[in-house]
Amino acid sequence: MKRKGQLILVSISILFTLYQWFTDQHKLFTLDFIIFTMIAWIVGWQYDKARYYEKKARASEESYKKLIDSLPQPVYITQNHRFLYANHAAVSMAGYERREEMIGKSILDFIIPEYNERLTERLKQVNKEKTPVNTIEYKAKRIDGSIFFFEVTSLFISFGGENAILSIGKDITDRKELTESLLLRSEKLALLGQMAAGIAHEIRNPLTSIRGFIQLFKSNHIKDEYFDIVLTELDRINAIVGEFLVLAKPTAAVYKKQDITLLLNDVITLIGTQSILNNVQIAVEFENELPMISCEENQLKQVFLNLLKNAIEAMPHGGNIEVTVRKKGEGQISIKIIDEGIGIPADRIPSLGEPFYTTKEKGTGLGLMTCYKIIEGHHGVLNIQSKVNEGTRIEILLPTITQALLKVDPIEV
Questions:
Q1: Residue 269 maps to a domain
Q2: Model confidence over 137-162: pLDDT tens digits?
């Protein structure tokens, strides 16, 4: 440690004493001289000591910064949510070219709003515990607006003599996308296995019946009603396979301009006989001057037939079905089908649309799954609300012709 401060202050004390001796003929080595010189010595020593530790701290801080800059992972230091320092990797990750552009900015400017509360609570925890906290994930954005996922661990530190938070992180966007891709693939494989098992189960039941009746035919135990049962079971197999093919094979759908009023009236006419036989009345209400839609006519008819058929079957003792069609929002049409049936328990609604999940005794679940697939293919939405013993409300939202022309896939012929 250099003693520059001590030498300067002691020298000043001696020079001042010599000046007094020369001008006023004062004694040189008086008690005042000794006291002032001692004070100068002590103050100079403290000054030199402070300078030494300040220089040492600056050197340590520079070494600290060099170490941080050499790390390949993003590292940054914040205070009150603002950047005090960031290494090259952090600056690059944020989308800046120079560190100076990033210093002073708020970290909240880079975090997606729904993650702000998570960040704030985490920083409070770091300040409170003064120890490293577990890794946490944030969704962030760069200055160009691109989104990425960031995994970070934070630690309470002292930086420049003040309390601060050091964070070390990693861009996990690629890893997250890979994980989601693997999960999606896993879900598809699980779905395929579930569907295969369901199809095997659903087809095996009628095949067992057919096999039994054929054995009766071989033993000459033939009755006319046996033929009817066999044909019914074969129709059931054909229906299951038909519904599955709609889901499985790509269809060359031809989208055309359609009037939803005419399309729905055709469907209600088709299902009218079944509704009368089941003592069900269907009331239809169309808003005036409904815009046209672009759709595959047969597919939408299949959706409406399935939903109306489900509504009728949900009212074994008869009842009313209300069908309303109105404009909704900008460029959308709302089709609501409301019944007074037995309803669906709330815990079962999230599973509707899954293959072979059904509330019917002899259902396959493929009908509703087909509906979801068709509406999704038309860039629409199908929502189901229900209460037990009160009924079910189904709403389908479809884009109108101006919106649909912008969204539908190219027509395949």
A1: yes
A2: 888 888 888 888 888 888 888 777 78
Per the structure, how many domains does the chain have? Answer: 4
User: CB of 249 within 8 A of CB of 200?
Assistant: no
Q: Which two tokens stand for residue 86?
A: 């960031």
Q: Do residue 338 and residue 302 come from a single domain? A: yes
Question: Using one digit for the tens of pLDDT, what is the confidence trace for 332-381?
Answer: 999 999 999 888 888 777 767 665 444 554 444 567 877 888 888 888 99
Last residue of a domain, one of 223, 248, 273: 248
Q: pTM value?
A: 0.42
Task: Check whether residue 277 and residue 400 sit in a common domain.
Answer: yes
Calculate the alpha carbon distances from 333 to 59, 134, 286, 287, 380 in Å: 70, 49, 11, 10, 10
Residue where a domain stops, chosen among 116, 145, 171: 171
Distance (Å, whole) CA 315 – CA 325: 22
Name, in order, each residue with C-beta under 8 angstroms of 364's C-beta and a sequence gap of 6 or more: 198, 202, 240, 243, 355, 356, 358
Instruction: Report the CATH number that the domain containing residue 94 is assigned in CATH.
Output: 3.30.450.20
157: tokens are: 């530190």
The enclosing domain of 308 has a CATH number of 3.30.565.10
CB within 8 A of 230, min separation 6: which ones?
Answer: 209, 210, 213, 214
Domain co-membership, 261 together with 402: yes
pLDDT of residue 38: 72
Output the CA torsion sign for 50, 54, 59, 64: positive
Amino acid at 188: K
> In a 3-state reduction of DSSP, which class is residue 308?
helix
Give the residue numbers spanning the domain of 200. Answer: 176-248
The pLDDT value given to residue 363? 46
Q: What is the pLDDT of residue 397?
A: 93
Question: Mind listing the pLDDT tens digit for each residue in 15-45?
Answer: 666 666 666 666 656 666 666 667 766 766 6
Residue 54 within any structural domain of the chain: yes
What are the E-state strand segments in 35-171?
75-79, 82-86, 136-141, 147-159, 162-171
